[in-house]
Write a structure and sequence with these properties.
5-stranded antiparallel β-sheet; 4 helices
């Protein structure tokens, strides 16, 4: 390798995992993502604000035996997306994104992916839209998505390990991809 030098330090940095809240995010991005100037969302440990405070997202979890709790927001996050955790801030459970799709289909979109088999109720609310318009028609200003907890049964006699893995253990929540979530968000 003639004339090419690569600092070893850069390779070492890639091998070190980030813990929650340790990512190198420019201060300007954090200020923009925590802002609620254009919306009514107030960020907290359990409330995620997206799209400059326009959208407020909360997530509740539930075990198969009925234990329940409020998911917490992992830090940092971006303007459009963030992570929730349930028990340990270094064990992220759900990725949530709210995207502006006005230029594509005239809606704002909600996407979420779970890495858990616990039950979940995700609520996303557009804090800038009232419940009704001036003419009395209902606005679509909030969406609630519910996923029941998965109960894991024991392996049945005669059931192969492969079938048990595929039919029981590999079952989780499907990804949420609603590209028509907020039809009233784009205006006219």
């Amino acid at each position: 390798m003639l004339g090419v030098t690569v600092p070893i330090v850069s390779f070492l940095l890639l091998a070190v995992p980030l813990l929650a809240g340790e990512a190198n995010v420019p201060a300007s991005d954090l200020e923009a993502s925590n802002s609620s100037q254009s919306g009514g969302c107030v960020e907290s440990d359990t409330v995620m604000c997206l799209q400059d405070g326009r959208y407020e997202a909360t997530l509740e979890w539930k075990t198969p035996d009925g234990e329940a709790g409020q998911a917490r927001v992992a830090r940092p996050r971006t303007r459009d997306s963030g992570l929730f955790y349930f028990f340990d801030y270094n064990n992220w459970e759900v990725l949530l994104k709210v995207l502006d799709g006005c230029g594509v289909n005239g809606h704002h979109w909600v996407y979420a992916a779970s890495a858990s088999d616990l039950g979940m109720t995700l609520m996303v609310r557009d804090t800038t839209l009232p419940d009704t318009t001036d003419d009395g028609t209902m606005n679509v200003n909030s969406r609630t998505y519910t996923f029941e907890p998965h109960s894991r049964r024991a392996r049945m006699p005669g059931e192969s390990e492969e079938d048990y893995q595929a039919n029981v253990l590999a079952k989780g929540h499907p990804a949420l991809t609603e590209s028509g979530a907020f039809p009233d968000a784009c205006g006219s």
